[in-house]
Design goal:
seven-stranded mixed sheet; about 25% helix; five-stranded mixed sheet; single chain; 26 strands
Length: about 675
């Protein structure tokens, strides 16, 4: 149970975030967003803005320099007159002060040739198509057996459609960059991101530089949840503005602008069909998802992929269809794909349990499998059943009356729900350096990112264990692109990926140590690319089960989560203290998904109406009354030297379904369109 190594720095304010670095002669950037949902810019009038004292530069499609590589369309800032969606960045102003820049941005006058935007996802949209792949490289569709026939002939059938809305990541620290061009033509970025190496590589391409000419500094990050996993427009705008103004600039994307420019979870429409025999054993699983992308770049979320893993059935089909709308580009949001996909699947499993008259936990246990249902590969480890049974005992599931809508406490209806979870145990190739210092300490360097997860502490524990040293003798340096190249903090792959490189570097260092350390120190490095290629074929996943108890006010329809428990099987837990925090954080986001989070699109103007935390609601402490997480012991030799799986995302995966299933048990009402708000629930109470 180790405290975060940087905890004192954070609580005292010594930990520097991107906007806080002291840079001399700094100017400020304000960005201008498109005020139409689709069209073309016909003119940009900068006269009033440039007359304002303190304005240093204005950038738009009429004067912006040509960028070298804009294969990511969202980074093609000011490269054309096309407006692809309302809120797209179309200009930027640099001012001596932030107030000056914002006032000048207000004075900028842009004229458009406007078209009606197409912004509504619907299951019958004529533009729906099958993508070549879904994130990151999964096939869009899979099929085995005769799913249609098997479903039709099943004794027990469930055929239901669920929808999830667009949701926005909303990290506490906004997307922020300080950009500075140096005298030698190199670029320095203090940037809030989930991977300094990725930002370095991308910005180098955008500006036609060698990667070594771009230095990205990002040791502390105030949250990301996927939205900072790729370089965002703020980094490109800051670099362009710094070059135009001839001095360093700061750009922090205001909260209201983040809703259009920093990614979000796509809305989904999901049809799930489950066919089972009278004993509840699945014959057929059909899971079809429709979702949206933008006209700027394709992002196809892997919504139905967890259905390929969770339960056995001889006849099965999963599919994805995507439509390119006049909307911002969706992107990663904590457990992309798994989160909305498992909501639909696990809600349908709850409906199947009711239709078959079988306890929801027993139904899941009967359909467990020791091999990947689609690939046929053995699981490296799979303890879903252990999670379900352990959670049922701890949560008091045996005392649950299976009949919905009958437990009253005053004017409150009370119910319990359960859902399974799964998330892939990803691992990426990485590099690391370990160094023995003459003073008896050790330094480990890797361009990893700690986005608030406790990664820095976990990596130090891994290094200390490998070197057989006290934790106090270990210094871990991360968040700098000059360090050995590292994968992004995403896909719950950080600790497994970075940790393996650190283990190998520390092992190599131990092999070099022979007595006293010389004055210049001793150093060793590692690259795990070859090791990963040589791994045996296994299906590697974490599993879990979430339990929720809710109360529903019969008069107002208000839902409160009384208590929630998550039980997980995620390999070896490196640091129990921060791991529990990650599990609980994911479950809290799941409560938000179930009950309140919804980005509302204005279909006429093509804009998200919920653009701040007053309108886009997330859970507060008052919404999380009693929440706990635990894990079952799991030894898996087929993962990595630590035996660990990712934990950052599986906590959210089944949480919304558990809450939704509890609401149904409490009320007898099934709300299939998230979030479960009083207006959706009350009419049927």
């Amino acid at each position: 149970m180790t405290d975060r190594l940087e905890s004192r720095e954070k609580v005292t304010g010594a930990a520097r975030y991107a906007f806080e670095y002291p840079v001399e002669n700094v100017a400020y950037v304000a960005a201008v967003q498109a005020s139409v949902g689709k069209g073309r810019i016909t003119a940009v009038d900068t006269e009033a803005a440039l007359r304002l004292p303190g304005v240093l530069a204005v950038l738009s499609c009429e004067n912006a320099p040509e960028l070298s590589d804009v294969s990511d369309g969202e980074l093609a800032l000011f490269q054309s007159r096309t407006v692809s969606y309302r809120g797209q960045f179309i200009a930027a102003v640099v001012g001596e002060t932030l107030e000056t820049a914002r006032e000048a941005a207000r004075l900028l006058h842009v004229e458009y040739s406007e078209e009606a935007p197409d912004v509504r996802l619907r299951a019958d949209h004529p533009g729906l198509y099958k993508p070549d792949k879904v994130n990151p490289v999964f096939p869009a569709d899979t099929e085995q057996g005769e799913p249609e026939d098997a479903f039709r002939d099943s004794a027990v059938q469930v055929d239901v459609t669920y929808t999830t809305p667009a949701e926005h990541n909303n990290p506490m620290e906004p997307h922020t960059t300080i950009a500075q061009w140096n005298e030698d033509g190199t670029l320095t970025l203090y940037d809030s991101n989930q991977g300094a190496s990725a930002v370095q590589a991308t910005l180098a391409k955008v500006f036609g530089l060698d990667p070594i000419q771009v230095h990205v500094v990002s040791p502390h990050v105030g949250g990301g949840f996927g939205s900072k996993g790729l370089p965002r427009p703020n980094a490109v705008i800051a670099a362009m503005a710094a070059r135009a103004a001839g001095r360093p600039v700061k750009f922090a994307v205001p909260r209201q602008q983040m809703f259009a420019t920093t990614g979000y979870r796509t809305p989904t429409i999901q049809r799930v069909r489950l066919g089972a025999d009278a004993d509840g054993r699945l014959n057929a699983i059909l899971h079809e998802a429709s979702e949206q992308t933008s006209t700027v770049k394709e992002f196809a979320e892997q919504t139905t992929t967890p259905t390929r893993v969770l339960y056995q059935a001889p006849h099965r089909r999963t599919s994805h269809r995507v439509v390119a709308l006049d909307v911002p580009s969706p992107s990663w949001m904590r457990a992309p794909g798994e989160t909305p996909g498992v909501y639909a699947l696990e809600s349908a499993m709850d409906e199947l349990a009711a239709a078959a008259g079988i306890d929801p936990i027993e139904l899941r246990i009967r359909n467990d499998t020791d091999r990947d249902p689609e690939s046929g590969l053995p699981f490296s480890s799979r303890n879903l059943v252990a999670c379900l049974r352990e959670g049922a005992e701890r949560f008091g599931w045996a005392g649950r009356n299976p009949v919905p809508g009958i437990r009253w406490e005053g004017r409150k209806l009370v119910g319990m729900g359960v859902a399974s979870s799964t998330y892939p145990a990803y691992q990426m190739p990485n590099q690391a350096v370990a160094r023995a210092e003459p003073d008896g300490t050790f330094t480990v360097r890797i361009a990893a990112a700690d986005i608030g997860t406790g990664a820095r502490t976990a990596l130090a524990l891994i290094a200390a264990e490998t070197l057989k040293e006290d934790l106090g003798n270990i210094n871990v340096e991360i968040g700098d692109s000059t360090f050995p190249r590292a994968s992004v903090a995403g896909g719950s792959a950080g600790t497994a990926s970075w940790g393996t490189a650190i283990v190998r570097a520390c092992e190599a260092l131990r092999g070099k140590l022979n007595g006293a350390v010389p004055p210049e120190g001793v150093e060793a490095s590692a690259d795990t690319a070859a090791e990963l290629k040589a791994r045996e074929d296994y299906s590697r996943h974490a599993f879990g089960a979430q339990f929720a108890e809710v109360e529903v006010d019969a008069d107002t329809g208000e839902v409160r989560v009384r208590r929630m428990l998550g039980v997980f099987a995620a390999g070896r837990i490196i640091n129990p203290k921060t791991a529990r925090s990650q599990f609980i954080g994911g479950m809290t986001m799941g409560i938000g998904m179930a009950l309140m989070e919804e980005s509302v699109m204005d279909t006429e103007f093509g804009d998200y109406l919920t653009r701040d935390l007053a309108q886009y609601h997330v859970p507060s402490c008052a919404d999380v009354r009693d929440i706990d997480a635990m894990w079952v012991e799991e030894s898996d030799p087929h993962l990595n030297p630590m035996g660990s799986k990712g934990i950052g995302e599986i906590g959210i995966v089944g949480a919304a379904a558990a809450v939704g299933n509890a609401v149904h048990h409490a009320t007898g009402v099934r709300v299939r369109d998230l979030p479960i708000t009083p207006s959706r629930l009350l009419p049927d109470l």
